[in-house]
Amino acid sequence: ILLITLYRLTLHPLADYPGPGYTAISEAYNIFSCLNGERHLQFKIWHDRYGPVVRYAPNRLSFCDEKAISDIYGVRANTQKSQMYGGFNHVFNATSSLTCTDRKEHTFKRRAINNALQPAQLKIFEKHLTKNMDILTNDVLKDASSSDWSSPHDLSTLIHRLLTDMIGDVVFSKSWNVQISPTKRWIEEFFPLATSGVHAAGHMLLALKLNLQSVFLPRTMASVYQWLAVARSQCEERIQREESMGDGKDLFSSLLRISKDIPAKSLGMNDLVAETAIMIVAGADTTTTALTATLFYLLMHPSILHLVRQEIDATFPSPIDSHDTTSNLSRTTIENGASLSSCKLLRACIDEALRLSPPGPGLFPREVLAGGLLVADKWYVPAGVDVGVPIYAVQRDARYWREAHTFDPFRWLLSGSPTSSSPASESETDHHNTFMPFNFGRTSCVGKHLAYNAMSVTLARILKTFDLEMESGSQVSGSKFGKSKGGGWGRGNKEEFQVRDVFSSAHQGPVVRFRRR
Question: Where are the transmembrane segments (predicted)?
C-alpha cells in the first residue's frame, strides 16, 4: 500500500496535475461522493481552488474549460465512454444506448431510439403529457379557487408524479397512475438511491468482477435491483400486449422493431430491460428537475414571472373556464407548435434554470484511447485515463458567464443562443458553448427535444391556469436545501434551487400553494 501511494503521488503520469492528495491516492473519496449527493458541489469547490484541471481520483481528471468540452465529447474526440459505465452493464447484464462503450453499437442503438422521436411521434407523446397534465390540474383545482389558495404541495413531488405517469405512457403505453393512486407511488421512491448506487459501483470494478457490490453497498444495491425488477416486469407485460397493439406508437415498439427488421441485431430481454430502465429515469427525473427549478427561480423573481405570464397570455389569449374544472380549453390551446415556440422568454427561463441547476450536474467520464489526447491545446493526457467536464461547475464559471450565479434569462435572448431574435450585444460575455445540460456531441441526450416539448407545454399550462406562491420558510430538503439560510456545506445561497447529484438528480420542494387565475 505504501509503494502504491508513493507511486501515485510521485511517478504516476498524472502526478503533476493539481488536486487534493487524498484523491490521488485512492478512489475511496470518489466513490463516497457518488453516494452523498454533493459531488457536483465538490467539483466546483475544487476547480475554484486548483484551477481548470483537477485530479479527482488516481486515474481521472476533471477539466472545467470551454475547449475541453469539444476535445473530450466531440464527434472526433479520441475518447470512448469510460469503463465506469461497466457498472451499469454489469448490473443490467447487458449494454444500453447510454452505457455501451463500443461506438458502432452505440450508434446503432441510438439511431433506433432517434427514429422513435421524430416530430410526428413527438406529437403523439404530447397527447400523453396532456392527459396526465389534466389529472394534475384537476387534482390541484379540487381545493383551489379564484379567491382561495390551495393546500400546500411539494412541487418536486407533484411534477415527478406527473412525469412518471407520462413516461409510462411514452415507453410502455401504460400509465402507472402514481398521481391518483397512493398504492402505486412506491415505484418512484427508490430511483435516486438506485442511480447513485450503480454510479458508485461503476468505480468499484474489482468488486463488481467478484460480485461483492452488495457487500459494500447493500442498501443502494437493493434499490438497484428493485429498479431492474420494475423495468423487467413492465417489459414482460408490454410484450404480452404486443399482438393486440398493432403498430405500436411507444418507445418500446421501436426497440422491438429492431429485432423484426434486423434479426442479427435482435434485442434479448436483458437488452430491453437495460434500455427501458434508463428511459424511466432519464425521462422522469431529469425533466422533473428542469421544470421544478424553472418554477422555483420564477417564484424567486416575481418581475420575471410577470413578464413570462404576459408572454403566455398574449400568445394564448383564450381564458380558462373558471367554473368547469374538466374544461378542455387549456389542452386545446396550449400545445407545441409555432405559437408556443414564439414564447422566447419562456424558453430562456428554461435554459437559465438548466444552466444554474442542471439535471445531471456532475461529470460524465470518457476514457482516452490509444495515442492520447491533447485537451485545450495545452494538457496532454495519456491513454487509459478518464477525463470529463463537470457540468454544474462549468455552467457557473465566472470566466464564461457574467454574474454566473444570478438567474438572468435575458442572457439567452442575445445572439448565439437557440432563442436568439436580436443582434449580439457588444457587452455580451456569456459563452453559450459551455451550456451542456444534455451533455455534448454524439452521446448527448437523445430525448432532448421530447424534454423541451414537455417542459414548455407543462410550464405554459401551469402559468396560464394558476397563480403560485411559495410557502413562507419553504425549504427544499430539511435545513440544507432551498429557501433557507445556512444551507449546509456548499449550499449557502438561499436563492439557488439545490439538487443532489445522484448521477441524475434528486431534490425536494419548494412547497407552494396554487390559486386559479
Answer: none
